[in-house]
Amino acid sequence: MQLVSVVWGILALLGALVAFFPCLGWMNWMIIPFALIGLIMSLVARDQEARTGVKPSNTGVILNGSAVVMGIVRLTLGGGLF
User: pTM for this structure?
Assistant: First the structure.
């Protein structure tokens, strides 16, 4: 599950980077929920790994969290949020 959340985070982060281009800011409305789902998956995977004794990886949390923050910043700068 951790691998899925890392791949999900990479896709979300790439989408958030593409959404920084002019006229593509509408993509943030899809990227933020996509990244939030990935963030939830990575937190669940991290919790499961902590129970089994395997050292948890925070890569999925970092990638998905970064995509959420980038999407919110872009929406705020573009006037789509407030």
Answer: 0.86
